[in-house]
Design goal:
The complex is a heterodimer.
Chain A lengths: L4 H19 L3 E4 L4 H13 L9 E4 L6 H14 L3 E4 L2 H5 L4 H25 L3 E3 L16 E4 L27 E4 L7 H11 L10 E8 L2 E4 L14 E6 L10 E4 L5 H8 L19 H8 L3
Parallel strand pairs in A: 1-2, 1-4, 2-3, 4-6
Antiparallel strand pairs in A: 5-6, 7-8, 7-9, 8-10, 9-10
Helix pairs in contact in A: 1-2, 6-7
Chain B lengths: L11 H10 L2 E8 L5 H11 L5 H14 L16 H6 L6 E6 L4 E6 L7 H8 L4 E7 L6 H12 L4 E7 L8 H15 L6 E6 L23 H7 L12 E8 L7 E5 L4 E3 L3 E4 L5 E8 L7 E3 L3 E6 L10 E3 L6 E12 L10 E5 L4 E13 L6 E2 L9 E14 L10 E5 L6 E10 L2 H4 L9 H7 L5 E6 L6 H14 L4 E5 H6 L9 H20 L3 E5 L5 H10 L5 E7 L2 H7 L4 H6 L21 E4 L5 H18 L1
Parallel strand pairs in B: 1-3, 1-4, 4-5, 5-6, 22-24, 22-25, 23-24, 25-26
Antiparallel strand pairs in B: 2-3, 7-8, 7-14, 8-13, 9-12, 10-11, 10-14, 11-13, 15-19, 15-21, 16-17, 16-20, 17-18, 17-19, 20-21
Helix pairs in contact in B: 11-17, 13-14
Classes of the chains: A alpha/beta, B alpha/beta.
C-alpha cells in the first residue's frame, strides 16, 4: 500500500472499469462532459490499452448545456475516436420543458432523469459507469462502488449490498441495472491534481475569463444564449469568473476567480471555504434533494 | 470535501508532491448506537477546520428534528446523509469522508452501530487499517462493543483506538476511564490486536479530539487526531509472494494477448518466471504494458497488463503467481463466514462464491461451529442467522486459487451471493484448504453413461415433479411410469415419502434438513441417470435454490422440471393423507404452503394445472414432451 495517492486512486478506478467489462454484457459510460467525466474518459483509455474502451459513451443532452460543453464533447469524440451516443428526451422537447418556464426541479426530472432512463432502456444497458464522487454530497458519501438499481432505476439506500474488499457482486436480476462509480474515493482536489499531472483536456469554462453574468438567487448565472429572460432589476455584468462544476447553464453558478490555469485552480482550491455543489441550484431546492433525485433514478 | 489547508503554500509543485506522497490511513469508527460515532467525526472535521461553510449552513437547515442539543449544531448531521438517518437520528449506512492534515491523509468510514446494520459495518471494516471503537463512559463495554471488536479483528484490523466518549458526563473522572480501559484490555486479549490506545474524549465538546483537554489533566497520552497522524502502521510487506488475479484477457488484435489485473501482493519484473496457479503451466513475463509505456517492474496495488513469453491458458479467475511460493488450489477449504441475510445460511444449500475475480458454485458442507461474540466460545449450530459468525467447511464445484486470509486479505476473501435474489448474503475469510480434495479422486470407469444408455435405447433424464403436498405429483408420476414401462423404457421412481423411510430417515422438516434432504435425493437421481435410467423424482422441493442446485448437478438438458400446479385450497380439500387438517390446526410445524413457503418455479420445462385435467392426460402430455425432447438431441 505504498503507492502514491494518485497512482493508488488510478489503479483502483482501472480495476473497477475492468470488472465492469469482464462481468456485464452491455455497459456504457455516462459522459457528462465535466471534469470528472474527462478523468473517467482518460482512465478508460488507460484501462484497456492497447485496446480501445470496449463500451460507448452516452451524453444525456438536456438542450440547456453551455455551448462550449457541446463543442468540447464533439471535439473529444472526434480526436479520441470513441463511440459517442447522444440522447435527448423528445417528449420533453415537444412539451417545451425548460428551466425558465418550468423550474429547475421539473426540468431536471424530465430532461435529465427521465431522459437517462429512456436511454438506458432504449439501448438495453445493464451497467452504467459515471464519475460521481463520494465527497461531492453527503448522500453520495453513502454510495457503493457498484450500486444496484431496480427495474424502475430507483436507488434504495436500505437495499444496498454490503461491499467488502474489492470483491464486487456484479450480478443483477431481470430488469435490474448497475450504476458503477470508479471515482468514488477521489476528492475534488485529487481530480484537479490528476488533470494537471496527466494533462487532461477540459472544457474552457473551468478557467477564469470575462463572461456576461447576472446575479440571481444569490448565484452568478452566465448568459450563454438568448433564451434567458432577464428580470427588470437584473443587470448584465462583465465579470472575471469561472465554474467549479458544469451542468445546465441556467442552473449553474459561476464563482469570481482569476484562476486561468490548472495550477491557478489548485492554488485557489487550497483557500476556498465552500463546497463545489454550492454552485448547483438543483441540489439546494430542498434538504435531501440529492437523495430524492437518486431514488428516482438520477445519478 | 477536499483537502483544505489553513495556509496556502508558496511553492505549489513542492506542496503537491508532498501531498501526493503522504501516507493514507483508512480507519473506521464503530461501537454501539448513541455512543457518538458520527458526532466524533463531525467534531474532528469541524475543529480541524475541514468543513466547508455551505455545509455548515445546510446543517442549520435540516437541523431541527435531529438536533438533540438544542442550540448547538448537531455535528452528526454532517455525516448522516440519508433522510431516514436524519429522521431517526441514527446511522444506517457507512459514510466515507476524506481529509488530510499536514502529516497524513485519511479515509474514514463512519459505520452504523445498530446490530441490524452489521453488514454495513463489515463493509467499512474490510478495507480499514485501524478502528476507533467508541464507548459511552456511562455504559462501559456493551455487546455491540464486543461484536464490533471481534469483527474488526476477524477482518484483519490490527490497531484499535478506544475512544472513551462522553467523559464530560462522568465529571471527567479518571477512575471511570481507567476501569473501562482495563475491562477492554482484558476482554480484547484474545483478539490479538497489535495496539490498543485508550483516549478519554468528549465528541460533543471536543475534549482530546484535536488537542489535549484542560479537563483531563490526568491523561498524558495523545489527543485523537495527533494519534491518528502518528500511529505506526504495519510496514508494507514487500517480500510477500507475487499474486496477480487475472481480471480479463486483452486481445485487440491477433498479435497481442495480455492479462489485465491489479497486483494483489509482491512484485514482478520483466523476465521473471511465473506460473498459472490452477494449471501449473510455466512461463515468464515478456512485457509489463501500460498506457504510459512499458514498465520494468510492477508492484503491489498497480493495475497493469502482463504479456507472457509463452502461450498459456489463463483466463479470468485464474492467477499468475511466483513459482517458488504458490497459492493453494483446492475445491474444499475451511473459512470464517459472517452472515448478512435474513434467510439463514444452511449447510447443503448452493450459493455463488465470488472471489476478487473468480466465481463458482459452492456449498457449505459442514457448519463446524458458531462463534459466540460475547464469550468467543464455540457453539454447535445447524444454521447461521443474520449477523452471526461461524466456521465452515466449504466445497466448490471447481477448484479456486487462494491464500489464507491472515496472509493476504486480497486473495483470501470471498463473498456468498444468493442464486435467486443475487443479494450478497455472506462474507468469508479463508483459513486453510482441506486435504480431502487432494486424496479423493474421481474413479474413471470403462463402461460409461453413454454405453449404458445406448444398451437401453434411451436417453437418461431426471423428471423432477415439484408442487404442494397433495397436488398430485405421485399420481401423475405413477401414471407416466406405467406408460414408459409399457414402452420398454428403463425407469425408476424416487418418491419423497419413500426416501424418508430409508436414506433420509435421520432428517426432519426444518429448513436445514429439507435442504439436505433434497441434496441427497438429487445426488441419488444423478447416479441413476448415470446408470442410464429415466428417473422420476416426486418431491415437494419448495425452494428455488435447491431445485436449481439439482438442475446444475445434471448434464445440460437432462433435468426436466415439472411444476404440478394445484391451488392450496384444492390440495387442502383433497388432503389424501389428512396432513392439511393437522397442519391448519397447528399440529405440524414447517408444513409447506401453510407454515413454510413454497417458491413457485419461474421457468419449468412443463407447467401442469391439475384442476382442469385428468392425471392420465397430464402423464400423456409429459410423454409427448419427452418424445420431442429425445428427438431433438
Amino acid at each position: 500500500m505504498s503507492l502514491a495517492n494518485l497512482r493508488r486512486l488510478e489503479a483502483e478506478a482501472i480495476h473497477v472499469l475492468r470488472e465492469v467489462v469482464a462481468t456485464f454484457s452491455n455497459p456504457v459510460v455516462l459522459y457528462s462532459i465535466g471534469k470528472d467525466s474527462s478523468v473517467l474518459l482518460h482512465l478508460a483509455m488507460k484501462a484497456f490499452f492497447p485496446a480501445k474502451p470496449p463500451f460507448p459513451f452516452l451524453h444525456v443532452d438536456t438542450r440547456w448545456k453551455f455551448r462550449q460543453m457541446i463543442e468540447f464533447r464533439d471535439r473529444m469524440a472526434r480526436e479520441l475516436g470513441f463511440n459517442l451516443l447522444v440522447h435527448i428526451n423528445q417528449d420533453g422537447v415537444d412539451q417545451g420543458i425548460g428551466p425558465f418556464t418550468h423550474g429547475s426541479n421539473l426540468h431536471t426530472h424530465v430532461m435529465k432523469t427521465m431522459a437517462l432512463r429512456q436511454a438506458l432502456e432504449k439501448y438495453g444497458f445493464d451497467a452504467a459507469l459515471a464519475g460521481a464522487r463520494r465527497d461531492e454530497e453527503k448522500s453520495r458519501a453513502k454510495e457503493r462502488m457498484f450500486s444496484i438499481r431496480n427495474a424502475q432505476h430507483g436507488w434504495d439506500p436500505k437495499r444496498q449490498r454490503p461491499e467488502m474488499w474489492k470483491t464486487y457482486n456484479t450480478r443483477v436480476g431481470a430488469g435490474e441495472t448497475m450504476r458503477v462509480f470508479p471515482l468514488s474515493n477521489w476528492t475534488e482536489f485529487d481530480i484537479w491534481q490528476y488533470i494537471l499531472q496527466e494533462n487532461i483536456p477540459i472544457v474552457p469554462l473551468y478557467f477564469a475569463a470575462r463572461r456576461p453574468v447576472v446575479r440571481r438567487d444569490g448565484m452568478l448565472i452566465m448568459i450563454d444564449d438568448d433564451r434567458m429572460p432577464l428580470e427588470p432589476d437584473e443587470e448584465v455584468m462583465d465579470r472575471m469568473v469561472r465554474f467549479r462544476t458544469l451542468g445546465c447553464y441556467p442552473l449553474t453558478g459561476a464563482i469570481d476567480s482569476e484562476a486561468a490555469t490548472v495550477p491557478d485552480i489548485l492554488r485557489e482550491m487550497l483557500t476556498v471555504r465552500t463546497s463545489e455543489r454550492q454552485s448547483r441550484l438543483i441540489d439546494t431546492d430542498e434538504a435531501g434533494a440529492m437523495e430524492k433525485k437518486k431514488r428516482e433514478g438520477y445519478f | 470535501m477536499s483537502y483544505l489547508q489553513s495556509v496556502p503554500p508558496h511553492d505549489l509543485e513542492a506542496h503537491l508532491a508532498d501531498h501526493d506522497s503522504k501516507t493514507v490511513l483508512r480507519f473506521i469508527t464503530c461501537g454501539s448506537v448513541d455512543d457518538g460515532k458520527s458526532t466524533l467525526i463531525g467534531r474532528l472535521l469541524f475543529d480541524a477546520k475541514l468543513v466547508f461553510e455551505d455545509q455548515l449552513v445546510n446543517l442549520g437547515r435540516v437541523g431541527s428534528p435531529g438536533a438533540a442539543n438544542g442550540e448547538e449544531v448537531d455535528l452528526a448531521l454532517l455525516l448522516d446523509g440519508l433522510e431516514a438517518e436524519r429522521e431517526q437520528g441514527i446511522t444506517i449506512d457507512v459514510a466515507y469522508r476524506y481529509f488530510a492534515t499536514s502529516k497524513r491523509k485519511f479515509i474514514v468510514a463512519d459505520t452504523p452501530g445498530h446490530e441490524e446494520y452489521t453488514r454495513n459495518m463489515v463493509t467499512g471494516a474490510s478495507t480499514a487499517d485501524l478502528a476507533v471503537i467508541l464507548i459511552d463512559s456511562r455504559q462501559g463495554i456493551l455487546q455491540q462493543t464486543r461484536r464490533h471488536s471481534y469483527i474488526a479483528s476477524l477482518l484483519g484490523i490490527h490497531h484499535v483506538v478506544l475512544a472513551v466518549n462522553k467523559i464530560d458526563l462522568v465529571e471527567f473522572r479518571q477512575s471511570v476511564f481507567d476501569e473501562i480501559a482495563a475491562d477492554y484490555r482484558a476482554f480484547a486479549k484474545e483478539l490479538g490486536f497489535a495496539s490498543i490506545q485508550p483516549i478519554p474524549i468528549s465528541a460533543r465538546f471536543g475534549d482530546n479530539v484535536i488537542s489535549a483537554s484542560q479537563n483531563t489533566p490526568w491523561y498524558k497520552g495523545p489527543a485523537l487526531l495527533e494519534y491518528l497522524e502518528t500511529v505506526q502502521l504495519d510496514p508494507p510487506e514487500a517480500e510477500r509472494p507475487f499474486r496477480f488475479p487475472v481480471q480479463l484477457v486483452v486481445r485487440p488484435n491477433a498479435n497481442f494477448r495480455g492479462y489485465a489485473g491489479q497486483v494483489a501482493s509482491g512484485r514482478v519484473s520483466v523476465g521473471d518466471p511465473v506460473v498459472v496457479a490452477k494449471s501449473g503451466q510455466r512461463s515468464s513475463v515478456k512485457a509489463i504494458v501500460t498506457f504510459d509505456g512499458n514498465l520494468a517492474t510492477a508492484a503491489e496495488g498497480e493495475a497493469v497488463t502482463l504479456v507472457l513469453a509463452d502461450e498459456v491458458d489463463a483466463s479470468r479467475g485464474n492467477m499468475l503467481v511466483a513459482p517458488a511460493a504458490r497459492p493453494f488450489v483446492a475445491d474444499q477449504f475451511q473459512a470464517h463466514v459472517i452472515w448478512f441475510d435474513a434467510n439463514p445460511m444452511l449447510p447443503g444449500r448452493s450459493y455463488i462464491l465470488r472471489t476478487e475475480t473468480d466465481s463458482v458454485s459452492a456449498t457449505v458442507t459442514a457448519l463446524k461451529h458458531q462463534v459466540n461474540i460475547n464469550s468467543f466460545a464455540r457453539e454447535a449450530a445447524k444454521s447461521l442467522q443474520m449477523n452471526e459468525v461461524g466456521v465452515c467447511n466449504i466445497s466448490t464445484q471447481a477448484p479456486i486459487a487462494f491464500d489464507a486470509y491472515k496472509d493476504n486479505r486480497a486473495t483470501g476473501n470471498f463473498v456468498f451471493v444468493d442464486r435467486v435474489t443475487n443479494a450478497t448474503v455472506g462474507a468469508g475469510m479463508i483459513d486453510f484448504p482441506l486435504r480431502r480434495a487432494d486424496n479423493v479422486h474421481w474413479q474413471a470407469t470403462d463402461v460409461n453413461k453413454g454405453a449404458r444408455a445406448a444398451m437401453k435405447s434411451q436417453r437418461p433424464a431426471v423428471l423432477w415433479f415439484t408442487g404442494l403436498s397433495g397436488s398430485g405429483k405421485s399420481t401423475i408420476a405413477n401414471a407416466l411410469d406405467r406408460l414408459l414401462h409399457a414402452r420398454g423404457k428403463h425407469t425408476y421412481m424416487l418418491d419423497g415419502d419413500n426416501v424418508r423411510h430409508g436414506l433420509n430417515r435421520d432428517l426432519g422438516f426444518t429448513e436445514a434438513d429439507r435442504v439436505e434432504n433434497i441434496r441427497r435425493i438429487a445426488e441419488v437421481a444423478k447416479l441413476m441417470a448415470d446408470a442410464g435410467l429415466i428417473v422420476l423424482v416426486s418431491f415437494i422441493s419448495p425452494f428455488r435454490g435447491e431445485r436449481r442446485m439439482a438442475r446444475e448437478l445434471m448434464e445440460a438438458g437432462e433435468f426436466i422440471e415439472i411444476f404440478v400446479d394445484t391451488p392450496l385450497e384444492e390440495c387442502a380439500r383433497r388432503d389424501p393423507k389428512g396432513l392439511y387438517e393437522k397442519a391448519l390446526a397447528g399440529k405440524i410445524a414447517n408444513f409447506t404452503g401453510v407454515s413454510s413457503p413454497y417458491e413457485v418455479p419461474e421457468n419449468p420445462e412443463l407447467h401442469l394445472k391439475t384442476v382442469e385435467e385428468d392425471p392420465i392426460v397430464l402423464a400423456l402430455k409429459i410423454e409427448e414432451f419427452l418424445d420431442r425432447h429425445m428427438e431433438d438431441k
